[in-house]
Design a protein that fits this description.
Blueprint (H helix, E strand, L loop, with lengths): L4 E2 L4 H10 L1 E2 L2 E2 L17 E3 L8 E6 L15 H14 L3 E4 L10 H10 L1 H5 L4 E3 L11 H11 L9 E5 L3 E5 L11 H11 L7 E5 L18 H13 L6 E6 L5 E6 L2 E6 L26 E8 L2 E9 L8 E10 L3
Length: 336
């Protein structure tokens, strides 16, 4: 898989600083050289426009739960592998994984299965940008969990959150919803610095993470937004309207597809990567509103001039061979 050059400190220096910032075995900071006192900060990674397709295309999805293919209860290996192959065919400029990549983060075998099944992405030379989910911390203590994660994704070592700029118009920000997004937290201070330092050319900001700030609230309370992500939503409520760029948040955790617009921010739940599907009762604010189930899928975003066109690509779970439907379409227009 291809990856851009990491800006700032070398990986060795960043890792050394991360160790200095470790207390009681838990790293407190995602990108060590993103000092919380900074008022603005550049992208962690940058991909030059000459290295991207025209139009720029990215894909986001989550909740794959890679594990032994014999496990057909926690995850659907047939759907999981069909999605991998289809995404490889798309050859996006960036592939954003919204967490729960392994089923059990403490099992190296689950990461080995991910490595094996995702080989079509490496063959296609895809740039893969993962975000941490809750299953990355299942079955292990946090330091061991993170070591398993970084062993599989060594280019992101010492980073629990980071950013990438793809060409002049598109900017991605990975957040870790397993740790604090509350006001004053180190991660939130870093996010503020990222938004304050956006290049003037950027028209669209994709924030990808695991737990959703907005979803269809269920009477059962299952998977409803937590205080941690609600804090992010409240921050964006005031911060996003003042930006020159439009903000799109794509999360997972709910094993379905949902889409919302709130306070000038677009929110998508894309948790159809293969994990056991979740039925949701859709509220009137859900702009998708479809009644299909299950929704194994990915979200494709194409940047065409000043318009970001989104499509939910759904896998038909009943077809004898992989069959795909463009089930939801939306457009986001850049601000003047």
């Amino acid at each position: 898989m291809n990856h851009p050059v990491r800006r700032g400190f070398t990986a060795k220096v960043a890792a050394a600083i991360a160790l200095l910032l470790t207390f009681g075995g838990c790293a407190w900071i995602g990108r060590p050289f993103n000092a919380p006192a900074a008022t603005s900060s550049p992208a962690t990674f940058v991909v030059a426009e000459r290295d991207l397709h025209q139009p720029l295309t990215v894909i986001a999805y989550g909740d794959m739960r890679f594990t032994d293919p014999a496990n057909v209860t926690a995850t659907n290996p047939v759907a999981r592998q069909a999605l991998i192959a289809k995404i490889a065919e798309e050859r996006p400029d960036g592939l954003f994984l919204n967490g729960d990549v392994p089923y059990i983060g403490g099992h190296r075998d689950d990461y080995a299965e991910f490595h094996k099944e995702s080989s079509p992405w490496r063959d296609a030379g895809l740039r893969v940008y993962p975000a941490l989910g809750n299953h990355e911390f299942k079955g292990c203590e946090e330091p061991a969990c993170l070591e398993n994660w970084w062993s599989e994704f060594p280019q992101f070592r010492s980073l629990r959150w980071y950013s990438v700029q793809l060409g002049p118009r598109f900017y991605g920000i990975a957040l870790d919803s397993d740790i604090s997004l509350l006001p004053g937290s180190i991660q939130m201070q870093w996010l503020k610095a990222q938004l304050a330092g956006l290049p003037a050319s950027v028209g669209f900001v994709l924030i990808w993470m695991h737990h959703p700030p907005v979803d269809d609230v269920q009477a059962s309370g299952d998977d409803n937004p937590r205080d941690n992500e609600i804090a992010l939503r409240e921050f964006l409520k005031t911060a996003a309207p003042g930006l020159r760029a439009h903000v799109l948040v794509v999360a997972a955790h709910v094993h379905n597809y949902e889409r919302f617009m709130r306070d000038e921010v677009s929110y998508i739940v894309s948790g159809g990567g293969g994990a056991k599907p979740t039925r949701v009762v859709r509220g009137p604010d859900d702009l998708f509103g479809g009644d299909t189930f299950p929704n194994y899928h990915y979200v494709k975003l194409v940047l065409d001039q000043d318009t970001l066109r989104g499509t939910m690509i759904r896998l038909d779970p009943l077809a004898a061979a992989p069959a795909w439907t463009a089930l939801d379409h939306f457009e986001i227009t850049a601000r003047e």
